[in-house]
Specification:
The complex is a heterodimer of chains A (286) and B (270). Chain A is 26% helix and 26% strand. Chain A has 8 helices and 15 strands. The longest helix of chain A has 18 residues, at 161-178. Chain B has 270 residues and is mostly helical. Chain B has a domain at 5-23 and 30-190: ABC transporter involved in vitamin B12 uptake, BtuC (Orthogonal Bundle), CATH 1.10.3470.10. Chain B is globular, with a radius of gyration of 19 Å. The N and C termini of chain B lie far apart (56 Å). The chains are: A alpha/beta (286), B mainly alpha (270). Chains A and B meet through strand 5 of A and helix 6, helix 7 and helix 10 of B.
Chain lengths: 286, 270
């Protein structure tokens, strides 16, 4: 696998001073960004700040008008785009969707579908899925590729809040298990998953970057986001000791499955915890 | 066996239907029906130019179809007009140009109706050979570009980000379309080629769970339509192209109640 071939500390992809110009207007300019193996980088920023453009430059889909893009040789990428419209005339089951870009390792598809919580939908036609189910299917497809670099553009849109937390958990788990680099574009300016190593706040240029705590405390961040910005970045912080299975049963951390409804333990916090900006440590680093 | 004009027409028609199935699926999935029509209409210009400079007709049609799709790509880059409007301009201009050039060539007598609607009497032994050789080449190339083409249909950006070359596959696909139009012209005629691409694929949609199955089924339905249509053409002395399209339409109409029946069954997804 390509994973073993790449040196550990080197960045998987590095953007240096990139700028993208369309119709005489700079969409982004002077953006630096780097994702290393095992690192989670989250891009936040207001609408039209160039989040998706920057992501597409990193992916090699858009060629920048200035600056340099370096990708590790033989880099295996998986990409979950912000929007994906599949024409209803195209018959596509979730199972077939998984192998769209190339063949997978044996069992990888089933494993990925289980980890995103939709193993029961393997045979379903993609167009019958709800928004949240489709998002999970796309994420499963990306994970199943066992990429070196996983790029997620607003991966939790259309997913309900509990599902959102579960998906963030899953993303942290993927990083821990596979050691891939993850580039994440967040739809929410104020909430960044706790396992994030680096936050990059874009506004046509890099407004500020650093650890979530550093960005939340930065003056540029406060200036950009105004009064609500002073509430600072919230971090997802919670423990999960169980998983809700599709058939209504509950799987516990020790692997047992029970039928009855469960009581939430003291450490089971389903809500995000707002950081106060004073370097509050994230509890689940993955 | 090949001495019989009907057997020759049948063999050529089946060869065209086999490749029209999978190609037609992409035309349906990517909403390229109008594009296919434009390429087909340009075929008459190809016929006219082939007569004018005295080259093989299939080669002339192929060359013009490729030129028209290249012109479309170039005009699209300027982004002055929508693709829809550009296709409208190219489609009818090419057809009209072809008709005008043919009218000027008073020294040749051509069977215009035959080119527009197909003529089974016109299929020669050489045509049968060209159709089957062409069909084999189209299928081989299509198999080669299938993955990037399908992934690019779902999302060109994802396909490209994940190391496939969807743009190159699309360019190759345009050439395949031009080739199929050149091959299909004699059997179904210029004005009806697109229907042989679209109707079998649309009929196959209701009975297919995967893109691959839809492609194979579309080929099979196309073969059925060609066979039924040509027998009808022979029996009722009707032009071959329209007869084939009517046969395809009958299959499509028959599939509608079956598809509705299938949809009424509970979906076992959750």
């Amino acid at each position: 696998m390509t994973t073993a071939m790449l040196p550990k500390s080197e960045s998987l992809v590095r953007l240096e001073g990139i700028g993208v110009r369309r119709d005489g207007r700079w969409l982004v300019r002077g953006v630096d960004l780097s994702v290393s193996r095992g690192e989670i980088v989250t891009i936040i920023g207001p609408n039209g700040s160039g989040k998706s453009t920057t992501t597409k430059v990193a992916l090699g889909v858009i060629r920048p008008n200035e600056g340099r893009v370096t990708r590790a040789p033989g880099l295996k990428v998986a990409y979950v785009p912000q929007r994906l419209a599949i024409d209803w005339t195209l018959p596509l089951t979730v199972e077939r969707l998984m192998t769209l870009s190339g063949p997978l390792a044996a069992g990888a598809a089933a494993e990925a579908l289980t980890s995103t919580g939709i193993p029961h939908l393997a045979g379903a036609e993609v167009r019958t899925l709800s928004g949240g189910e489709f998002q999970r299917a796309l994420l499963a497809r990306a994970i199943a590729r066992r990429p070196d670099l996983l790029v997620l553009d607003e991966p939790v849109q259309g997913v309900d809040f509990a599902g959102e937390i579960a998906l963030y958990d899953l993303i942290a788990k993927i990083r821990a298990e596979h050691g891939c680099g993850i580039l994440l574009v967040s739809h929410d300016l104020h909430v960044v998953m706790a396992a994030t190593d680096t936050v990059i706040c874009l506004n046509g240029h890099v407004c500020c970057s650093g650890t979530p705590e550093a960005v939340a405390g930065s003056e540029d961040y406060l200036r950009l986001f105004g009064p609500r910005g002073s509430e600072a970045l919230a971090l997802y912080r919670h423990h999960h000791d169980h998983v809700h299975l599709a058939d209504g049963r509950v799987r516990h951390a020790d692997g047992t499955v029970s039928d009855d409804h469960h009581a939430h333990g003291p450490h089971c916090d389903h809500s995000p915890v707002a950081g106060d900006g004073s370097a509050r440590k994230a509890a689940n680093a993955g | 066996m090949l001495d019989d004009f009907f057997v020759r027409a049948l063999l050529a028609g089946i060869g065209v239907a086999v490749v029209a199935g999978p190609l037609g699926c992409f035309v349906v999935w990517r909403r390229m029906a109008y594009f296919g029509d434009t390429m087909a209409h340009s075929a008459l210009l190809g016929v006219a130019l082939a007569l004018l400079v005295d080259i093989d007709m299939t080669a002339g049609v192929f060359a013009i179809a490729v030129a028209v799709s290249a012109a479309l790509v170039l005009l699209q880059r300027r982004q002055a007009l929508s693709t829809d409007a550009l296709l409208g301009i190219l489609s009818h201009s090419a057809l009209a140009l072809g008709l005008v050039i043919v009218a000027f060539m008073t020294w040749v007598r051509i069977d215009l109706i035959g080119y527009l609607f197909g003529d089974i009497l016109a299929v020669s032994r050489a045509d049968v050979a060209i159709v089957w050789a062409g069909a084999a080449a189209v299928l081989a190339i299509l198999a080669f570009i299938w993955r990037p083409m399908l992934a690019g249909t779902v999302s060109a950006e994802v396909a490209e980000a994940e190391g496939l070359r969807p743009e190159r596959a699309r360019a190759a696909f345009m050439i395949l379309m031009a080739l199929v139009i050149a091959l299909a012209m004699k059997v179904v005629g210029i004005l009806l080629i697109t229907s042989l691409l679209i109707i079998p694929a649309a009929t196959a949609r209701g009975f297919s769970a995967t893109p691959e199955r839809m492609a194979v089924l579309a080929s099979a339905l196309g073969i059925a339509a060609v066979t039924g249509g040509l027998y009808g053409s022979l029996a009722f002395d009707t032009p071959s192209g329209p007869s084939i399209v009517v046969a395809a339409l009958v299959l499509f109409a028959a599939s509608l109640p079956l598809g509705a029946l299938k949809r009424r069954q509970p979906i076992e997804t959750r």
